[in-house]
Amino acid sequence: MSKKNLTRRQFLTAASVGTIAAAASRAIPVHAQASKEASKLAIQGGQPVRTKRWPSWPVWDRSAEESVLSILRSGRWFRGSGNTVSQFEEKYAALLGAKRCVCTVNGTNALLTALHILDIGVGDEVIVSPYTFIATYNVVIGSCALPVFADTDPETFQINPDKIEERINENTAAILPVHILGLPANMDRINAIAKKHNLKVIEDACQAWLAEWRGKKCGTLGDLGCFSFQESKHLPCGEGGAVVGNDDEIMDRCFSYHNCGRPYGSLKRTSGYPIIGTNRRMTEYQAAILLSQIQRLEKDTAMRVENANYLTSKIKDIPGIVPHKLYDGVTRAAYHLYPFRYKKEHFNNAPRSRFLSALSAEGVPCSGGYGPQYRDGLIEVALNSKNFKRSFSKARLRRYRDELHYPGNDQLCQEAVWLSQSMLLTTKKDMDDIADAILKIYESRDKMA
Length: 449
Fold this sequence. Notes:
The chain is α/β, with parallel strands linked by helices. The protein is 37% helix and 13% strand.
C-alpha cells in the first residue's frame, strides 16, 4: 500500500501499530498526504465525520426504582431514621480499601469537613494545584486559609511536584493534591514532601473514583480523601460526597462534625455536643441511588480505560496533538475526562477556539477546560476581605499577589482539549470517529486560520 494513497482511516490504523516510520518520527508530510481526497470540513459546510449521538449521562437502572420509592414512601429520608447511607458508606469504603467512609451532601462539603477536622483554618496556608475545579480554591478560602498554588505540569495536567517545596513556609499546614480529570497526581513525591515538612495531605479525589496509584485507590493515600457524587460524576446521585480515611478517631470526628457535633464512636462517652459541628449529612434516597450506581462502576471504569488507551494510540502520531502523560506510578486512571493538548503551530496557527469549533462540527463535542481561575477576581475578593486582612500580614498578602504567576498552568489553559467521560462508554469504532475527525481537521489545517 502506498503511503501517498492511504485513506484517513487506514493511516490511523497503520500509525497505531507503528508501521509508518515517518509517522513515528512525526514527519508532517506523511500526514499531509494521508488522504488527498479529504472531505470539506463540517464547519465550512462539509459532511461531518460523525452524526451518531453519543451516550447521555447519567444512566438509570429501572430495577433500582423500587428501593428509592420505598424510602420515599416510608418518610424516613434522614440518615438518622434509616440505614441506607450507612450501607453505602460501608460498601464504598470496602471498594476503595479504606477503613471508614462518611458521606456528605456534596464534594465541596467533604473537602470542608476534611480541612476542619485536620484543624486547618485561619492563618494557615494550603498548597494546591491551580488546575482544578473552583471548589478546591473555594474550600481553602472558605476556611480562611490561603490557597498557595504550585504550578501545573502541562504534560500530566497535575500539580508539578518539583514546584511544591518552594511554596512551603512556616505557615504551611497541608498539601491538597487534586487527581484532576481522574488522572492520579504523583503521590510518592507529594507524600514524601509532606512527611519531610510535617504537613497533612488531603486528597481531592472528587474526579477519581477507582483511580489507582501503585495499586492503591486514590483518596486512600493521604490523611483523608474526598469524593464527589454530583450528577456528572462516574458515581452520581445528583449531589453527594464522601470523606474516607483509615484513622478511627479522625473519622469519628468527621462523623460527629457532619452531624451537628453529636457524639459518635470514640466521642460517645461524652454528653451533649462534644465538638463544634454542622449539618452536612447525605439523605437516605441519595444513598439508595448510589447503591444502584455503584454496581456499574467497575465495568464502566474498565471500559473507559480501555477506550482511552486505544484513543491515545490512534491520535498520538498526529502532529500538534499531544495526549496526556501518566506518571509511572499510575496503575489505573479513571478518566472523568479524556484530555489532550492542541499545538496550534501544527495547524497553520489556527487558535484553539477554531479547533474546538471544527471538532464539535465534525460530531465530536469537546471543551477547552479550565481557565486561569486565579485571575477571575475571587482571589482579590478574598485578599481584600476583613477576615484575610486579620489573618495575614500586609507584607504576606502583597507577596502572595506577586506570586500569582504560573507559566505551566497558563500554557495548559491555552492548549487543553477535553472529551466527556460518557464518550468513552462506547466502542473502538467510536474512538476511531474521534481520531478520524481530528486527522481530518489536521489535513485541512491550511483552511483553519
